[in-house]
Design brief:
The protein is an alpha+beta fold. Strands 1, 2, 3, 4, 5, 6, 7 and 8 form an eight-stranded mixed sheet that branches. The termini are far apart. It is extended and about 70 Å long. Helices cover 38% and strands 29% of the residues.
Length: 127
């Protein structure tokens, strides 16, 4: 009898963990807000400029999704950042970035132009 209750208790704990984890995911998705296409383009532009000023060694940024605003009110989007021909997967926003570690430019490094590919299919080059 005791053994049966132990198994039931373990199954209940595992089921509770699965429910909690999937619930957090659903809540997180519900809190994400969609931005309009114009807002996304503006956020991507500002993000590209800020990222390039911090990492002038970036050659290219390709936004692979429109982006969204999370529960804290911060906008971010998935992007591929290219530096010296190598691609880095990142999630970047106007004032933040996470994902693959990217090389830090040496002090005094002067970068070249940055090509930005927006999620709407357009692109531009910043000198």
């Amino acid at each position: 009898m005791k053994r049966g209750r132990g198994v039931v208790a373990r199954v209940a704990v595992i089921a509770a963990l699965i429910a909690a984890l999937s619930g957090c995911s659903l809540i997180g998705d519900a809190l994400k807000q969609k931005a309009t296409p114009a807002e996304n383009r503006e956020y991507q532009l500002i993000t590209a400029q800020n990222q390039h000023s911090r990492w002038p060694n970036m050659d290219e940024i390709t936004f692979t999704q429109e982006g969204s605003i999370d529960g804290s009110g911060s906008w971010a989007a998935n992007a591929i950042v290219t530096i010296d021909g190598k691609d880095y997967d990142r999630i970047i926003g106007p004032y933040s970035g996470i994902g693959d570690d990217i090389p830090v430019p040496s002090p005094g490094f002067v970068g070249g132009p940055l090509t930005v590919h927006y999620s709407d299919g357009t692109s531009e080059v910043f000198e």
